[in-house]
Predict the structure.
Amino acid sequence: PHITFIDFEGTQRTVDANVGDTLMEAATSNDIPGIDADCGGACACATCHVYIDSNWQDEVGAAEDLETEMLEVAEEVKSNSRLSCQVVVTDSMDGLVVTTPESQY
Ligand code: FES
């Protein structure tokens, strides 16, 4: 599925993600800037914070408890915030758009 990452300046980059990878892995393996992922996907750093496009929030779903706790230490958290290492790519996410926060550049 194709996933588009938009950086804080509005630059769009689209990657062809693998089903079963996390959004974080799809980004880091394609050199997408703005996702640091310091903890390597353990839901322990909150530097893989992204904003899910409003049209996609239902498909992507909400954060679970551990992720919600980690989001409390992220900067500029919004109602559409997720940690990208906790979002697993599915076929039905083709066309997904997420934005990366300025604090991660
Ligand atoms: Fe650390 Fe996602 S990579 S919380």
In short: The mean pLDDT is 97.
